Amino acid sequence: MPLPTTISPDFDDMTSALPFDDFRNLMSRLPAGDEAAGERVRAQFARAEKPRESLGRLEELAAWLASWSGRPPAVNRPLVAIFAGNHGVARHGVSPQPVEATARAVELTAAGGAAINQLCLAYDIGLKVFDLALHLPTEDITQDAALDERGCAATMAFGMEAISGTDLLCIGDLGVGNSTVAATMLAAIHGGTGADWVGQGSGADAGMVVRKAQVVDAALSFHAGHLRDPLEVLRRVGGREFAAIAGAILAARMEKIPVMLDGFAAMAAASVLQALSPRALEHCMIAQLSPEPGYRKAVEKLGMKPLLDLGIAHGEGAGAALAAGLARAAALCSSGMAAALR
């Protein structure tokens, strides 16, 4: 399997970025799934020589794939897309890792030495890593907006362009400090204080967890009065990987590509879209349940049941890659059993 593609967009050259109004317009005309295609798969499983619904969520997975592709379920070109960003808020010591660790993780993945490389190899999944201006961290969200509207919209637009050539999109992320950013976004969207949403992240001790909660509260206080609009939450207290993930999820919906969500950043970005439209995540599944408390709370708020619960706290989309393997198995069960019925 070839090494992953690593892409570093030049945001200074992205002068044609869509303003937020265009994204709101897209959100108002989300395509629906093909329910008839899903029902055909369910009916096929019901006719097969086996106890009814005995394959459990594999049957649900196959019907979901059919609903969002409009054809018999198949996973031929799965892609793990990892979005990497750096954050000005890391200066407050919210992570045991230095900000330079994000670039090192990207380099390790590009060299084929990360856990996600091995999982993609095991399941024959494509892999792309998007270096979102790691040399230019976002602004410190306790003192300024992370991004201006143009920069946020440009990054969303870039995320929308990142998903071409796949029939199953699996989301991953990398970013020192981004669990604090995710906690801030989720507190802004769902309410609560920093203590309600923060956790250990990449290994924070008890004192650091307290500091993370204080940073979240400081950011919420600084931006108070400007966080009713979910897109303002994304640009003010988010970051580049969050904006790119939101754009990728939205583009997948417009192109009817099913999505596996994985990671705290993905939960926060997905929550922005769901706050804009309750229908925004119908084409998504949550790959796995992380031990991170805020992650678990976000999953509950999204009202979705994760496919796996393996205690994986590692980033990079590891859970999404594993879930993609399950999706491929579900599709093969559907096609093989359909052939037997003919």
Q: Percent range for helical residues? A: 40-55%
Mean pLDDT: 91
Whole-Å distance between the termini? 35 Å
Low-confidence sequence ranges: 11-17
The total count of helices amounts to 14
Structure description:
The protein has 342 residues and is an alpha/beta fold. The protein has a single domain (5-20, 77-329), classed as Rossmann fold (3-Layer(aba) Sandwich). It is 50% helix and 8% strand. The protein has helices at residues 20-27, 35-47, 57-69, 100-110, 115-123, 149-161, 178-190, 194-197, 206-222, 230-237, 240-254, 264-276, 293-302, 318-341; strands at residues 5-7, 78-84, 126-131, 168-174, 259-261, 284-286. The protein has a six-stranded parallel β-sheet, sandwiched between helices. The two termini are 35 Å apart. The model is unreliable at 11-17 (pLDDT under 50).
Descriptive tags:
342 residues; alpha/beta; Rossmann fold; 6-stranded parallel sheet; 14 helices; 50% helix; globular
Quick overview of this protein structure:
With 342 residues, the protein is α/β, with parallel strands linked by helices.
Write the layout of secondary structure elements.
Layout: E1 5-7, H1 20-27, H2 35-47, H3 57-69, E2 78-84, H4 100-110, H5 115-123, E3 126-131, H6 149-161, E4 168-174, H7 178-190, H8 194-197, H9 206-222, H10 230-237, H11 240-254, E5 259-261, H12 264-276, E6 284-286, H13 293-302, H14 318-341
Parallel strand pairs: 1-3, 2-3, 2-4, 4-5, 5-6
Helix pairs in contact: 2-3, 2-14, 3-14, 5-14, 6-11, 7-9, 7-10, 7-12, 10-12, 11-12, 12-13
